[in-house]
Write a structure and sequence with these properties.
There is one protein chain. The chain is an alpha/beta fold. It has a single domain, classed as Alpha-Beta Barrel (TIM Barrel). 30% of the residues lie in helices and 24% in strands. The chain starts with a strand and ends with a helix.
């Protein structure tokens, strides 16, 4: 259950990029956008690439229609900040925001649809309780997107639109060489293998 992938944002201090990679981390998913571009996204992307990181990803902390927002505009701004190439994983971070607002399923679908329209491939969905609360039954569209599950338990449980998580964020307290302090750790579940994650990374 050692983390294979970590997710970061600008307040996670990275002291040694090579140490992170050499510790066995194969992928980093970094915040690219939440109301504004993450100030360290581009710099860290270059630093991790120089250190030999195999897989790079970008996520948007999603607000949807909150405070008069627009999911289509938000997706466009996310793509502008992430500057994805063909190998960049893209993720919608669908959770409750700091004001207690939960973006709707329709807003999440609009965001995901915009990514697919612009790039011709799908993003992954990061969610935990929000997906379980906002989706009733099986939703074929949302379920066609790989799930990055947030669940800090010894076992996982997914909303029924998915059979299993593609990636499982099972810890907020991972300690990784080269990073000062704790960060989110992510693992894979059977029958996924490390080779599968690398091959499927960008979708």
């Amino acid at each position: 259950m050692n983390p294979l992938v970590i997710d970061l944002y600008h307040l996670n201090p990275v002291l040694d990029f090579a140490a992170v990679v050499n510790s066995g981390i194969i992928g980093v998913i970094h915040k690219a956008y939440e109301a504004a571009p993450d100030p360290l996204y581009a710099k860290r992307r270059q630093a991790f690439a120089a250190a030999g990181l195999q897989c790079w990803g970008a996520y948007a902390f999603f607000h949807g229609s909150d405070h008069g927002g627009n999911p289509i505009t938000e997706a466009d701004k996310f793509l502008a900040a992430a500057e994805p190439d063909a190998n960049t994983l893209l993720a919608l971070d669908w959770e409750t925001d700091e004001d207690g607002y939960v973006p709707s399923l329709d807003d999440a679908k609009a965001f995901l649809g915009r990514i697919e329209e612009k790039l011709g491939r799908t993003a992954i969905v990061y969610s935990g309780n929000v997906a379980k609360e906002k989706i009733s039954g099986i939703d074929d569209y949302i379920g066609s997107h790989r799930l990055w599950l947030a669940e800090y338990n010894k076992s996982w449980f997914v909303q029924e639109s998915w059979l299993a998580p593609w990636l499982w964020q099972n810890s907020e307290t991972s300690t990784i060489p080269g990073i000062d302090g704790l960060c989110d750790g992510n693992v894979i579940v059977d029958p996924m293998a490390v080779e599968d994650v690398i091959e499927q990374w960008s979708g």
